[in-house]
Write a structure and sequence with these properties.
Blueprint: E1 6-11, E2 14-19, H1 30-41, E3 49-54, E4 58-60, H2 74-90, E5 96-100, E6 103-105, H3 107-113, E7 117-121, E8 125-127, H4 141-149, H5 151-160, E9 163-165, H6 166-172, E10 177-179, H7 181-196, H8 200-213, H9 218-233, H10 236-246
Helix pairs in contact: 1-2, 4-5, 8-9
Length: 256
């Protein structure tokens, strides 16, 4: 399909979603939010992993402040446009890698953080820029960030709105890894290829179990693990994984 604000391509089981408004650092306007939601909701069947990245020098600078200007109804916009987009990322039927190639600010940072894995170039920065314009972090930031880095660091990030270099973000546990700029594209491709060739249903069960763990007590989590593991144990991928192990070869997972 043709999109105005994003690009989407699929090759080798890897879907690449590129935020494509480089002149405004890939700022999120209403059209972009709708297109991200659509492409992830109607994901082509051949995609077994999605890489979400930005064109140009930035990943995403957050809300496009020229999109309706100060007259924008932020509550309605969050409810009607941001929430569906974030849920589309979180509920994507395959793993999502946020490949943060540059600045990720405001809602752009939190769009990245809702992905399953965040890989950033060393030159990238994460900024909770909201208080700079008299707002609070949104797009799931107040949910995701304290869980990742704890309340003390979350408060500092949100109150001071400092730019956090990718390497520090990785050290804090805000993201999975920061890699040298010159290696960024190759490492992201390798990681995406690994997921695209892996046991997709098992990956999604991992996502489900980790998400539930923040609300479950130990007994509830053990029950959930048993249920999800039982389902995994009945999969074609489990049978293939065991066969490959016994035959000392690389498994050929189908995602089923």
């Amino acid at each position: 399909m043709n999109y105005e604000t994003i690009e989407f391509t699929t090759e080798g089981g890897i879907g690449t979603l590129t935020l494509n408004r480089p002149k405004v650092m890939n700022a999120l306007n209403s059209r972009m939010r709708a297109e991200i939601t659509q492409v992830l909701t109607d994901l082509p069947g051949e995609s077994r992993c999605v890489v979400m990245t930005g064109s140009g020098a930035a990943f995403c600078s957050g809300q496009d402040l020229t999109d309706a200007g100060s007259a924008i109804d932020l509550e309605a916009t969050l409810r009607d446009e941001y929430e569906p987009m974030l849920r589309a990322v979180r509920n994507c039927p395959v793993p999502v890698i946020a490949a943060v190639n540059g600045v990720a600010a405001g809602a752009g940072a939190n769009l990245a953080l809702v992905a399953d894995v965040v890989i950033a170039a060393d030159s990238a920065k994460f900024i909770q820029a909201f208080t700079r314009i008299g707002l609070i972090p949104d797009a799931g930031g107040t949910w995701a960030i304290p869980r990742a880095v704890g309340a003390a660091r979350a408060m500092g990030l949100m109150l001071f709105a400092d730019a956090i270099p990718a390497r520090k973000a990785a050290d804090w546990g805000l993201i999975w890894e920061a890699v040298p700029d010159e290696d960024f594209t190759g490492i992201v491709a390798d990681r995406a290829r690994q997921l695209a060739q892996g046991p997709t249903s098992a990956y999604l069960s991992v996502r489900q179990a980790v998400a539930a763990s923040f609300d479950n007590d130990l007994d509830a989590q053990l029950k959930l693990e048993a249920s999800l593991q039982g389902r995994a144990g009945r999969s074609d991928d489990f049978r293939e994984g065991v066969a490959a192990f016994l035959e000392k070869r690389k498994p050929r997972f189908t995602g089923k």
